[in-house]
Structures are given as C-alpha cells and as structure tokens.
Specification:
2 strands, mainly alpha, two-stranded parallel sheet
Length: about 70
C-alpha cells in the first residue's frame, strides 16, 4: 500500500495510531522470547501492557502469547 493510500484510509476510517515510546521498546526487548522480529515484539509488548488479544494467524505469536485469535 502506498503512503498516499494509507493516509487516505486513516482519514476515512476510525484508525488509532499508537505511539511507540521508549518504555514500550524496553518492554519489547525484555520479553523472554527468542523471536527477533522487532515488530512482533512490539505488538506483543503492547498487547500485554493493555491486556488485549492479538488478531493474527502468525504461528510465532501463537506460540508465545496465549491470547491470539485466529
């Protein structure tokens, strides 16, 4: 998806962009998880912080985080 299409989508749909602060980065690095993908680590750290499920078919996430839907 191009940046222009993304901006258009954000302007027309109720999407909330979550800021990634230093604490979230540190939380993601502190996970006792060998998985090295920084995006996956941030997703899990955020979900844990907010006690939220993750909607994903990613098997690596399912192995580590018990509240994965799909």
């Amino acid at each position: 998806m191009s940046l222009a299409k993304y901006v258009d989508l954000v302007n027309h749909v109720n999407i909330v962009q979550v800021p990634i602060d230093t604490t979230l980065w540190v939380d993601s690095l502190a996970l006792k998880w060998d998985h090295r993908d920084p995006a996956d680590r941030l997703i899990v750290a955020f979900a844990k912080r907010k006690n939220l499920p993750i909607v994903s078919s990613d098997g690596e996430l399912k192995k580590f985080y018990s509240s994965v839907i799909w």
